[in-house]
Write a structure and sequence with these properties.
single chain, Uridine Diphospho-n-acetylenolpyruvylglucosamine Reductase, domain 2, Vanillyl-alcohol Oxidase, Chain A, domain 3, 3 domains, 14 helices, oxidoreductase activity, FAD-binding PCMH-type domain-containing protein, FAD-bd_PCMH_sub1, FAD-bd_PCMH-like_sf, Oxid_FAD_bind_N
Length: about 500
């Protein structure tokens, strides 16, 4: 009987293959119709058909994300996005949106020939209000340009620490800035202009669509395409900065100093520390958010003997801090990945995880040349409480002092993808297990540090997830974004206990 079933299946295979081929042809034909209609409606300046400009197609930070779409829609005003959404929805084709293209997760900001790419880089206005209190920023702008345009006015905005990162994706993940002890970026959001699933152009702020305003501060791209952010600016500060390099063998002492500092950091919210280890050394950046001289809060680090001093301890402009911080992230054209986890402060656990990570990262580096980092981001309970202001957010972060660990991974060959990524995957698994044993684990995963196989929204907690689903159902009752958006941290994929 089983033999007969096998023969029957073999006879059916050509027919099944024909069905699959027919379906693929139907999808490509349908997306072709959508592209043609979009170009007819919006014009050739806005919609590009194949053959596409190579530089535009490849405008992704990670080579693992580069794909060629069926066509590219490049809106320069809100109405273009509105019309694009209506056309894509009506033809039931897949699409992806790209702000800066800095996500290393394949398919988050790119799509192949079965879909349409909406390139938001043309939505790049930077407009400061007359009272110099609020700046309106197009979602396709990059943080370095935003800062540069505000400096002549003596103000700045809390944003991305890497100048080339796009505005849009960073904010939707609830991004914390390089001066994270000072304030959360989500606290400074004033308003959004967003195209929802029905193609309507809406606003989301504390008074108008407040549920959407709440959801957009960490809920990702589940609610529409945000085309403009209004952000409260801050006076352009001068800051004290000092930076050191330590040997990898000094990790236990450096981690002890980091933990000792963070234990007192809540008493001085002007202080923050950048901790990054790579294959060669540990870099420590001490930052004080006003002019100072050797702030006492950093005393645990002054007791250490560094390999070298990376620059003079002095007061600099805020833009200098951004220039220094931008050097942390590789801008090299390569394959990239990131990954994140959070934990209560536990020096012994951090040391164990560091040893675990370093042994594996060095072994993989020897085989593949891959570079990996070990980054500790301090988050104080004061910062978490600030996030609850200004309409709150869905992140569900425990109001305790904690660290967010992340890694940035760079490598060359697609053949090494699994081996290279195994280091960060095993590291987060080890840390989670160790945290459970030591009662120092925290569930939260920061979306902007999450890798493709992680599920950050589920870590916000059941109440936040349920509310996010309610908001999504209100503004997208037909599930357009869940079904037709290519990839991303989508609500319908969130794990249910």
């Amino acid at each position: 009987m089983s033999r007969l079933l096998g023969v029957f299946f073999l006879l059916l295979r050509p027919l099944l293959g024909m069905d699959e081929e027919t379906e693929a042809q139907r999808i490509r034909q349908n997306v072709g119709f959508a592209c043609d209609l979009a170009q007819e409606s919006l014009g050739k300046d806005i919609v590009s058909l194949r053959p596409l400009d190579k530089a535009t197609v490849e405008n992704n930070w990670s080579l693992s994300c580069v794909q060629e779409p069926a066509c590219i829609i490049s809106p320069v005003q809100a109405e273009h996005v509105s019309q694009a959404v209506r056309i894509i929805s009506a033809h039931r084709v897949k699409f992806a949106t790209r702000s800066g293209g800095h996500s290393p997760n394949p398919g988050w900001s790119s799509i192949d020939g079965t879909g349409i790419l909406i390139d938001l880089s043309g939505l790049n206005n930077v407009t400061l209000s007359g009272d110099k209190d609020v700046v309106s920023v197009g979602t396709g702008q990059r943080w370095g340009n935003v800062t540069a345009q505000l400096v002549p006015h003596g103000v700045t905005v809390v944003g991305g620490r890497v100048p080339d990162v796009g505005v849009g994706g960073l904010i939707l993940g609830g991004k914390n800035p390089p001066n994270a002890n000072k304030t959360l970026l989500t606290r400074l959001l004033v308003d959004h202009q967003i195209v929802t699933a029905d193609g309507h152009i809406n606003r989301a702020n504390r008074k108008e669509n407040p549920d959407l305003f709440w959801a957009l501060k960490g809920g990702g791209s589940n609610f529409g395409i945000v085309i403009r952010y209004d952000l409260r600016v801050i006076p352009l500060p001068r800051i004290w900065v000092s930076a050191y390099a330590f040997a990898l063998s000094q990790a236990p002492a450096v981690i002890d100093a980091f933990v000792e500092w963070q234990g007192t950091a809540a008493s001085d919210p002007l202080s923050t520390v950048i901790f990054r280890a790579d294959m060669d050394a540990i870099t420590i950046g001490l930052i004080y958010l006003e002019p100072a001289f050797q702030p006492e809060i950093f005393q645990p680090f002054y007791r250490l003997k560094p390999l070298r001093i990376l620059g003079p301890s002095a007061n600099f402009s805020y833009t200098y801090l951004l220039d220094v911080a931008s050097s942390e992230t590789s801008q090299k054209r390569a394959r990239h990945d990131i990954r994140g986890i959070s934990s209560r402060i536990d020096a012994d656990a951090i040391k164990q995880v560091f040893r675990f990570w370093l042994s594996r990262a060095q072994a993989v580096h020897a085989k593949t040349g891959a570079n990996q980092t070990f980054d500790l981001q301090p988050v104080t309970r004061n910062l978490v409480r600030q996030g609850a202001a200004n309409g709150g957010n869905p992140l569900g972060i425990a109001p305790v002092d904690q660290i967010w660990w992340t890694t940035v991974v760079d490598w060359e060959s697609a053949a090494h993808d699994a081996m290279v990524r195994s280091v960060s995957i095993e590291t987060t698994e080890f840390w989670a297990q160790l945290g459970r044993e030591r009662h120092s684990d925290l569930p939260f995963i920061f979306m902007n540090d999450a890798s493709r196989d992680q599920d950050p929204i589920s870590t916000y907690g059941p109440a936040s997830v349920d509310k996010l689903r309610q908001v999504a159902n209100r503004y997208d009752p037909r599930g357009f974004l869940q079904q037709q958006q290519n990839h991303g941290f989508k609500l319908h994929k969130v794990w249910r206990p």
